[in-house]
Amino acid sequence: MPVLVQQMLLAAIIATTLDLILISKGLYSFPVRPFPEVFDIHIGFTLVLLPLSTVFLLFVFKYSTRLERMIMLAICGLAAMLLEIGSEKVGWFKHNELWRHWYSFIGYIIYLQIMWTFFRIRYKYKKN
User: Fold this and answer.
1) N or C: which terminus of the chain carries fewer CB neighbours within 10 A?
2) 95 phi/psi in degrees, rounded to 5
3) pLDDT tens per residue, the chain (128 residues)?
């Protein structure tokens, strides 16, 4: 199986698991989502958008310097935080009063760093 497909599957598994845990704890919810009677998570975001954008970023990271990757990680974290705030304003996303948007800033940086680490390990293994 190609490395990028493996990364997409890993991204979907991690995102789904984190969403299920955080939603079950009541930290946030997706008021507008596909198949709300079946899924508590937003499957479009968790299973399609996030894995595709993660693979795109990994492809870009592959051809970037360490400094460029660090800057892109910070920009991605900031973008995630700002998109989350915007999603809340239009009603796609809802947080409880304990949630702070900087959690998403830090969380996405950590998530992308983990994905980059797995990608590098897997890519090196596949080449040998």
Assistant:
1) C
2) -110, 155
3) 788 889 999 999 999 999 999 999 999 999 999 999 999 999 999 999 999 999 999 999 999 999 999 999 999 999 999 999 999 999 999 999 988 999 999 999 999 999 999 999 887 766 54
Residue 58 sits in which domain range? Answer: 3-127
* Number of independent structural domains in the chain: 1
Distance CA 12, CA 46 (A): 6
Four-residue CA torsion sign, 29, 40, 108, 110: positive
Distance of CA 29 to the CA centre of its chain: 16
Contacts of 31 (CB under 8 A, 6+ apart): 91, 92, 93, 94
Please state the pTM of the whole predicted model: 0.88
